[in-house]
Design the sequence.
């Protein structure tokens, strides 16, 4: 009798699963899901990019997957990406609900907040604040150059030696965000800065790992004491740090004289008043955490990719240095405006971003209404995954799709051009908030350091391995690089 009841119970849930995972009419094709797990077992969770590429070859540029009972549509190639993220932008502008990354931020902030009036207001405020960043006496460019000066000093001590640049660039990127958000920076051996980076590393490692996949696929697991609980504990620590910073700012703030991002937000809260304002301290806490995590990993991993390719392509490095020397002459430091006079350096930086492919699956979207894409019907609430790898390496869009070659961004006259398929920050209204900051950081870091140093691949390092380490953000495998002071000859 008991055996019969168990069989009936299992049969009922299998039938329920099959019913709930039936593809809607004219839904994109895809592999058939299995009970409970959907298509999760058909993907390499350590790095699903190759699997998604193979599925695209079989099912087309737009295909479907299931994560448990949750339907998802994967976009591949420039045409599909443009139609969804630009032409039908609002239809695809939502964020997924009921996933770990959503729960971590409580639905607040900008990065993981759903498409809503609050999201629109906060994105507009953040963009305006970063764009007009004349906070206190320091501009955004000043804050970046200040941190670069500390990095330069550290590298000068390593002249003639080999170093592992990974921690160096992570600390520098985090410090720049600290300066923007909190108005101060930390010495590279400071315990607080090291603690922050450790927490960031633990969160990003877990969010990309198999436990998070299981959390998102099997929602009932969130009630158990499993490893992903540590991620929520770390998030609470970061929220406490942000809350403490906000409290300190409130006690020392001078209205209308902002020193940093927090002061700007507090001023905005004051202008809007209490009551039904969308601006409040709980939103500010999540904003600080989001911007800090996002602005640290993306920049540092892009810089690591840049120096991996520059050390192993000395001809590219030499040509960049020649252009930098010619433009800067005997000036003390570069300005972001100098980029317009450095087409080859611009091409190199964009090619680094293309090859780095830092966020290969972008940030997941969700449809806000029933819509269409490439002739298919996509119901409201469908999870949308952008395979940016398929665009950044699309063979029909690039002269050298699989090779590191700045010529991908140069025309026949040697002028810098940006192909339509260059979208490492995604596209449309939800493209990366920090694009402007990232462009400025990358340019100033690379120009300043290339002007002062030559970077070489160590003779005893063996052959370089360009295979990336997949994660929330992709990073190169750890490597060492030789540092040599350059003998500058200015006219």
Sequence:
């Amino acid at each position: 009798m008991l055996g019969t009841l168990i069989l009936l119970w299992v049969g009922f849930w299998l039938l329920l699963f099959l019913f709930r995972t039936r593809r809607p009419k004219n839904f994109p094709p895809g592999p058939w899901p299995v009970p409970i797990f959907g298509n999760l077992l058909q993907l390499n969770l350590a790095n699903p990019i190759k699997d998604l590429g193979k599925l695209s070859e079989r099912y087309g540029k737009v295909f479907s997957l299931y994560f448990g009972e949750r339907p998802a549509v994967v976009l591949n190639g420039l045409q599909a990406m443009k139609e969804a993220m630009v032409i039908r932008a609002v239809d695809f502008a939502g964020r997924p609900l009921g996933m770990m990354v959503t729960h971590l931020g409580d639905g607040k902030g900008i990065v993981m907040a759903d498409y809503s009036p609050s999201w629109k207001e906060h994105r507009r405020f953040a963009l305006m604040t970063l764009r007009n960043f004349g906070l206190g006496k320091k501009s955004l460019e000043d804050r970046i150059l200040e941190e670069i000066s500390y990095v330069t000093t550290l590298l000068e001590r390593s002249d003639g030696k080999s170093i592992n640049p990974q921690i160096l660039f992570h600390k520098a990127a985090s410090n720049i965000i600290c300066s923007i958000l909190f108005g101060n920076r930390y010495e590279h051996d400071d315990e607080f800065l090291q603690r922050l980076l450790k927490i960031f590393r633990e969160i990003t490692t877990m969010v990309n790992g198999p436990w998070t996949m299981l959390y998102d696929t099997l929602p009932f697991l969130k009630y158990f004491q499993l490893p992903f609980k540590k991620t929520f504990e770390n998030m609470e620590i970061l929220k406490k740090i942000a809350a403490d910073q906000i409290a300190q700012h409130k006690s020392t703030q001078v209205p209308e004289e902002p020193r940093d991002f927090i002061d700007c937000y507090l001023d905005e809260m004051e202008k809007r008043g209490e009551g039904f304002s969308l601006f409040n301290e709980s939103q500010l806490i999540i904003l600080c955490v989001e911007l800090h995590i996002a602005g640290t990993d993306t920049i540092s991993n892009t810089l690591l990719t840049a120096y991996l390719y520059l050390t192993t392509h000395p001809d590219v490095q030499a040509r960049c240095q020649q252009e930098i020397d010619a433009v800067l002459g005997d000036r003390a430091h570069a300005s972001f405006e100098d980029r317009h006079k450095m087409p080859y350096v611009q091409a190199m930086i964009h090619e680094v971003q293309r090859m780095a492919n830092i966020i290969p699956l972008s940030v997941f979207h969700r449809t806000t209404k029933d819509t269409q894409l490439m002739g298919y019907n996509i119901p409201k609430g469908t999870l949308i995954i952008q395979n940016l790898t398929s665009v950044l390496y699309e063979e029909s869009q690039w002269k050298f799709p699989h090779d590191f070659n700045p010529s991908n961004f140069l025309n026949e006259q040697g002028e810098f051009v940006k192909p339509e398929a260059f979208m490492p920050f995604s596209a449309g209204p939800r493209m990366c908030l920090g694009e402007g900051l990232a462009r400025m950081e990358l340019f100033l870091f690379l120009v300043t350091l290339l002007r002062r140093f030559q970077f070489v691949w160590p003779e005893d390092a063996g052959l370089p391995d360009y295979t990336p380490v997949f994660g929330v953000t992709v990073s190169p495998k750890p490597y060492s690089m030789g540092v040599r002071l350059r003998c500058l000859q200015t006219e």
In short: The chain has a mean pLDDT of 90.
